[in-house]
Design brief:
2 strands, 41% helix, 5 helices, 10% strand, mainly alpha
């Protein structure tokens, strides 16, 4: 009993293989790129006070329950250094009291 082997397929040349790879569907699909991270809009916070803004801050700030540099900067659109100086000024005037003091974080509350 004898089983005959199927005939060998003729191998393609390197050029033919490259040509087949170029024309295949895989090469037409674009390679997936990394997702671009969403960029935050640059904040255009004030660096110096206008008279109106200063009056508004001095009036509204002592009414806030939790006062931090970040809260003041966000609410009144002023930069952090201006917020720090304002908080020190209001503390020296006795309008706000410090609750927690650390080198990088100060938490104030109303009187």
């Amino acid at each position: 009993f004898r089983v005959s082997m199927p005939q060998k397929k003729e191998q393609k040349s390197k050029a033919a293989k490259a040509m087949a790879a170029m024309s295949s569907a895989k090469s037409k699909v674009k390679k997936k790129k990394w997702a671009k991270g969403l960029k935050q809009d640059k904040k255009n916070n004030a660096v110096v006070y206008t008279q109106g803004l200063y009056d508004k801050v001095c009036k509204d700030l002592p009414k806030m329950k939790v006062i931090t540099i970040a809260n003041v900067s966000e609410k009144f659109q002023i930069n952090g250094s201006l917020a720090r100086r304002t908080l020190k000024l209001l503390e020296s005037e006795g309008k706000i009291t410090p609750v927690f003091r650390h080198s990088s974080m100060v938490l104030y509350t109303r009187n």
